[in-house]
Amino acid sequence: MIVKSVAFDLDGTLVDSASLVGEILNSMRLEKGLSPLGGDCYRIWSSRGGPHLVGNALEVAPEASGAFVEEFRRRYYQLPTPADCVFPGAWEMLNQLKNAGCLLAICSNKPQRLCHKVLSETGLIHFFGAIVGGDTLDKSKPDPTPLKYALSRLGNPLEAALMVGDSVVDQQTAMAAGVKFAFFTGGYDDGVDRLEASHVIDTLDELAPVVGLQRQETKQSLRPQKCFHYDRGAVEQSKSAY
Q: DSSP for 10-50?
C-alpha cells in the first residue's frame, strides 16, 4: 500500500538538539560540582525521555530525578532553539511530502509543550497535522500508544503509515504498533537493528523514494496545514481505544 501518513521522531530525526541539551545539563552538572560531558552522551540518552536523560546526566537515579527534570525543562523552555539545529534537507523533504499529499505527524518523548516550542521556533510546525509528545497520553514510546494515537489523528490506516526515527526506542515503537520503520542513520543511533528496519536512509532527502516520490527538491510554496493542538479532554476521550 502507498504511504499516506508519516510519523517522525523529533530529536535526532528532524532537529539536532544535543548541543542545546548539553549546554543546559552541563551547566547543571557544574552546579553539582561535576565536570561537563561531551555531546555524544546526550545523544545516546535523549531518546528515552527526561528522567533517563537527566538522571544519567546528573548521576542520580531516574526515579529521584523529578525536580532536576523540571528544572531542566524550565531552562530548556527559556532558551531559543538555534536556527541551524534543523537537519540538512529536513525542510525540503517535509515540503515535498506535504505537497504530494502525505499527512505528517510528530511522535516524540519530548514533552508536548517543548515539541511545540521547538517546531514553532524552527518554522516546521505547519507541516504537521498531529503533534504527540511524551506527556500527551499516559504512556510514552516505546509503548505503541502514542504512535497509534498520532496516526489516528491523521485519519489513514496503520498499514499506509511509516515511522521515521533514529533510535532503538523509535524502532521498538514502530514494531509494537505494526508500522513500517525507516531508520535515519544521521541521527543519534543508539544501536538500531538495521536488519529489522523496513528502510535505512543516510540523509533525509532519501525519504522521498521510500514513500513513492522522486528524489528532488520541491519549489512549490508552503501551504500551512491545520495543526493538532493538545487538548486533554479530547485525549481522554480518544486514548482508551488504544
A: SBTTTB--HHHHHHHHHHHHHHTTPPP--HHHHHHHGGG-H
User: What's the chain's length in residues?
Assistant: 242
Cα dihedral sign, 63-67-71-76: positive
SS3 136: coil
Q: Is 135 a catalytic residue?
A: no
42 vs 15 pLDDT, higher one:
15
pTM for the complete prediction?
A: 0.86
Bridge partners of residue 131, in order along the sequence: 106
Q: What is the mean pLDDT of residues 57-76?
A: 94
Question: Which domains can be identified in the chain, with CATH numbers?
Answer: 5-15+85-241 (3.40.50.1000), 18-78 (no CATH)
Q: For residues 101 and 156, give the distance between their C-alpha atoms in angstroms, rounded to a whole number.
A: 12
Q: Which residue's C-alpha cell is 514494531?
A: 175
| 103-107 and 5-8 strand pairing | parallel
Residue type, 126: H
Does the pLDDT of residue 237 top 50, yes or no? no
Q: What are the pLDDT digits (tens) for 129-169?
A: 999 999 999 999 999 999 999 999 999 999 999 999 999 99
Question: Strand, helix or coil at 163?
Answer: strand
Q: Which of 9, 11, 135, 190 is catalytic?
A: 9
Structure confidence by residue, pLDDT tens digits, 188-200: 999 999 999 999 9
Beta-strand ranges (E) seen in 185-228 are 199-201
